[in-house]
Amino acid sequence: MSVNRTDASVKKDVEDEIKWDPAVRDDNMIAVTVRDGVATLTGFVKNYMDSYYAEKAAKRVTGVTGVANDIEVRLLTERTDYEIAEEAVKALQRELPTISESIKVVVKDGWLKIEGECDWNYQKECAERALRSINGIKTISNLITVKEQATPVDIKQKIEEALVRNARLDADRITVEVAGGRVTLRGKVRSLAEKTQAQRSAWAAPGITWVENAIAVAP
Length: 219
What we know:
The protein is an alpha/beta fold. It has six helices and eleven strands.
């Protein structure tokens, strides 16, 4: 595969990847445009999960440097905000029993928002993952914050070690900057998937409150 890819070829691959993914059931209603490597997804789907998995599929494609998900969720049957909130609270209690009381659920017109604090980023991700499949939601805003716990030196060392351990990443091309619990990643990787993986590795360190991913994608 050539190093420089045209927007047209990337667009076709994104379309094919979305159609190939069985998790995206409403793929015929999704349109793709690509400009300077940034893929924009538009159209309509019947549930939030189709939008979520379409975005993940686009991010896997080589040559994609960013994804703008403008897909609109149009539900076949509407549920009340109360019903959605009630199910969301139960899901959090089931998946995160130790911190569920620290998480607040707010629903308005199908837009589900979660707020609160947790000790680890994996708990923040788990909270969102527990809610994605709830019938009736149109979008999720995860505003949960992670408490700062570790010193900057410890954080920097743990993240650098994690990057070296990850076989998918060229750790020598990535630099880590830490200020308090905030981390900035810089450098270059070969794909958006690698950029995302580097960010996940950074979030896995204890005490991280924010990760700015300034890594450039250079296929």
